[in-house]
Specification:
The chain is of the alpha+beta class and about 200 residues long. It contains 6 helices and 9 strands, in the order ββαααββββαβαββα. The longest helix is centred in the middle third of the chain and has 15 residues, at about 120-135.
C-alpha cells in the first residue's frame, strides 16, 4: 500500500528498509536522544531484527488491512527512505496496551539531512487522514516535555494536551513530564486547508 502527497510517500516496509533501520539503530543514532532517550541502553541485536523482519515480509497484506506502520520516503526521483510513522494503543489511563484502546501515533525521521523540510508535517497529514478515512476518530500522540520539536509539530497539526504525568523521567539529571495529546479534528482539518491553500 502507498499514500502520497507533494512532499512524501508513505509505503509498506520492504526488504531494503531492514539495513536502513539497522544503520539508524547502531550508527546514525542522534534521533534516539529525542524519541525515547530512556531506551538508549536497551540492547538491539541486528541479526534478530533482520530475521524477524524477513519473517514478517513473508506474510501477505491485503490493501483492506489497516496499516499501523508506514515507511516515509521523499516524493521525488530519489524516493529516499528517511523514517517511519507508527501507531499503537493506549488505555483510558494513557498507558500502552496490547488490548483495545485509543489509536496513538508516532513518527521518526532519523535522517538528519531530511529534518526541517516539512516531511514530518506532510507525513502526519497523510497518516492522520488515513486513520480518519478508515473510521478511527480518537487519535492521540505522546512524547516527553523535553522534545520541543515534536511538541511543535503536535500543536501545529491540531493536537491538544489531554494528560501530563509530572516528573515522568530523569534525563541528564533533569526531571521531565510525560505528555499525551488528543487530536482536535476540526483544528486538523483547518490546518490541512491552510496547507492546501498555501497559507502556511
Amino acid at each position: 500500500m502507498q499514500l502520497k502527497n507533494e512532499k512524501v510517500i508513505l509505503r509498506d516496509f520492504i526488504e531494503s528498509d531492514i539495513e536502513d533501520r539497522i544503520h539508524w539503530e547502531l550508527i546514525e543514532t542522534e534521533w534516539q536522544l529525542w524519541d525515547a532517550p530512556w531506551e538508549i541502553d536497551e540492547v538491539f541485536d541486528p541479526e534478530t531484527y533482520r530475521r524477524d523482519q524477513l519473517n514478517k515480509l513473508e506474510q501477505d497484506k491485503s490493501d483492506d488491512q489497516i496499516r499501523w506502520c508506514f515507511e516515509i520516503c521523499v516524493n521525488d526521483e530519489s524516493q529516499k527512505h528517511i523514517g517511519w510513522c507508527n501507531a499503537y494503543r493506549i488505555d483510558r489511563e494513557y498507558k500502552y496496551t496490547k488490548g483495545s484502546g485509543y489509536c496513538t501515533i508516532g513518527i521518526g525521521i532519523p535522517d538528519m539531512l531530511s529534518r526541517r523540510k516539512g516531511y514530518a508535517t506532510h507525513s502526519w497529514m497523510l497518516y492522520i487522514n488515513y486513520f480518519l478515512d478508515n473510521g478511527i476518530k480518537d487519535i492521540h500522540t505522546q512524547t516527553w516535555s523535553g522534545n520541543k520539536r515534536v511538541i511543535g509539530l503536535m500543536n501545529k497539526v491540531g493536537f491538544e494536551e489531554c494528560s501530563r504525568e509530572v516528573n515522568f523521567k530523569v534525563i541528564n539529571g533533569k526531571y521531565y513530564d510525560s505528555l499525551t495529546f488528543k487530536l482536535n479534528e476540526h483544528k486538523f482539518k483547518e490546518f490541512c486547508d491552510r496547507i492546501e491553500n498555501n497559507e502556511c
